[in-house]
Design a protein that fits this description.
This protein is α+β, with helices and mostly antiparallel strands. It is built from 14 helices and 15 strands. The model has no long low-confidence stretch (mean pLDDT 93).
Length: 397
């Protein structure tokens, strides 16, 4: 449920805690039951999905029924839907206009990525004000709508002064991260700390409320300072950045260029780097030399090296990074070669990976032993390659 994961991550950034998740099928009775339960225990309810043109897209009708509201057409949404089909050269059918109907009193949330607008509605339930926000199901539509429309809408509504900061740690497991900050976790109620792990990166969320004259930002920064002292260079950002975003920013600040030579990662390092806007100013070129022949012909790895040590070896990683650096002329080069599985090679076990770094005249190769399936090993290899470049730049390699 990627939508729930996304919203659970983003809502605390604007001071809203996520207390419950519910998943329910396209059945009116069960939908109403779930909605009634959600409204009984929460001030804000966010639904995702069920805003399309077909008969099983029931969200808006169900919400209207539960709240005792009529469904009425929103003419601007109807016009936008008609124009969307005309621009794409598609024939519109009457059912598509179902997406232009909303419960009375709704604030319409425009959909710049599709035909299904979202909406938000405030109602009085008993003596309490409640808010229901309905968002489309596809993440490519939900995420832009949340950022463009939902965030400002909720900021205006909430008087909560909860603030959060997100720190990222690389090269330390989630269990070890939690252990290292346990004294802070046990000793504090404001700020509070929580950890989340994904793809070799652990995120530490630090959240605080204004308290006894101290602003939330001050309380957070005090804790962030302590966390920096605990993790040192393993903490790569306090700005909630992906590690490739941090690296691209660092390379720009240093006016340095980077090139890659990849085997088992198949270009994943290059893909992560070039997914960052503005990477063209720091990325030289990328070699995907999956076969031994490609390593020899494109990067100049001596056949004797591969023959003696194997394609997965410290020696081959070193020759790969030398070749990439020489051919590209970049300030930094990184190489990756390893066994992603399902079986080993060159006598090396699955998960054995060598990553080489060349920065100016300094050359280093590190050995890693990752666990997990093929994709996890490839992803961890790419993340750690980017991290080694980061460490090389700050002189910690």
């Amino acid at each position: 449920n990627t939508n729930a994961q996304y919203l659970s991550k983003k809502l605390p950034e604007i001071g809203l805690g996520v207390y419950y998740h519910s998943v329910v099928g396209d059945n009116p009775e069960r939908l109403i039951s779930s909605l009634e339960l959600a409204l009984s225990r929460s001030d804000i309810v966010i639904t995702t999905g069920g805003l399309g043109p077909t008969q099983d897209d029931l969200t808006k009708d169900t919400v209207a029924q539960a709240l005792g509201l009529r469904m009425t057409v929103h003419e601007e949404s109807r016009r936008r839907i008609k124009e969307y089909f005309e621009r794409s050269g598609r024939v519109i059918v009457e059912s598509n206009y179902r997406q232009a109907y909303f419960p009375d009193g709704s604030v319409i949330l425009e959909n710049d990525m599709g035909t299904a607008p979202g909406c938000a509605i405030d109602v009085l339930r008993g003596k309490k004000n409640k808010t229901v926000i309905m968002l489309p199901g596809p993440p490519k539509e939900l995420i832009p709508m949340y950022e463009k429309s939902v965030v400002p809408y909720l900021r205006e509504k909430t008087a909560c002064h909860l603030k959060s900061k997100f720190l990222r740690v690389v090269g330390v497991s989630e269990s070890m991260t939690e252990k290292m900050i346990m004294d802070l976790v046990d000793g504090q109620t404001n700020p509070t700390l929580a950890t989340y792990a994904k793809d070799g990166i652990v995120t530490i969320r630090v959240s605080a409320n204004d308290e006894n004259g101290a602003r939330a930002e001050e309380l957070i920064e005090n804790t962030v300072s302590k966390i920096r002292g605990i993790f040192g260079t393993s903490l790569y950002t306090a700005e909630n950045e992906e590690i490739e975003e941090t690296l691209v920013r660092m390379l720009k600040e240093k006016n340095m260029t980077l090139s890659t030579a990849e085997s088992c990662t198949g270009g994943q390092v290059s893909q992560l780097i070039t997914s960052v806007s503005g990477a063209s100013s720091i990325f030289g070129c990328g070699f995907v030399t999956y076969s031994s022949i490609a390593k020899e012909s494109l990067l100049g790895v001596p056949h004797a090296i591969i023959e003696k040590h194997g394609a997965v070896s410290m020696e081959t990683a070193l020759e790969m990074v030398r070749g990439a650096g020489k051919i590209s002329g970049s300030d930094i080069a990184v190489s990756v070669t390893g066994c992603a599985g399902p079986s080993g090679m060159d006598g090396k076990p699955v998960g054995r990976v060598y990553i080489g770094i060349k920065i100016h005249d300094k050359e280093t190769v590190k050995e890693f032993n990752f666990t997990g399936n093929r994709e996890r090993i490839r992803t961890l290899s790419a993340i750690n390659a980017i991290n080694l470049v980061r460490l090389a730049i700050i002189g910690e390699l």
